[in-house]
Amino acid sequence: MNTISVAGKRLIDDNGRERIFNGINFVYKGVEKDEDGVIRYKTDLTEDVLKALRAKGINIIRLGLTWAGIEPEPGIYNTGYLDGYKEVLKLCDKHGMYVFVDWHQDLFSWFCMSAGDGAPEWACLHTKKQKDQLLIWAEGYFFHKDIHKAFDDFWNNREFEGRGLRDRFCDMLTFTADYLSDCRCIMGYDVFNEPFPGTPGGKMFRTVVKNGVGTLLFNKRIDRKKLIKDALSKEVMEMLSVADDKKVYKNFLSKTKDLMFEFDTKRYYPFLVAASEAIRKVDKTGIIFSENCYFSNMGIPCSVPRIVYKDGTREENHVFSPHGYDITVDTPLTNYASPHRIDFIFDEHKRTQERMDVPVLVGEWGGMVPGSDEYPALEHLIEKFDKNKWSHTYWHYFVGFENSGIMNVICRPLPIAVAGEIKGYSYDRKNKEFTLTYSGSSTIKAPTLIYLPSEPKKVYSTKGWKYKDNVLSVYAGKGECAVKVEL
Question: Strands 22-27, 391-394: parallel, antiparallel or unpaired by DSSP?
Answer without folding.
Answer: parallel
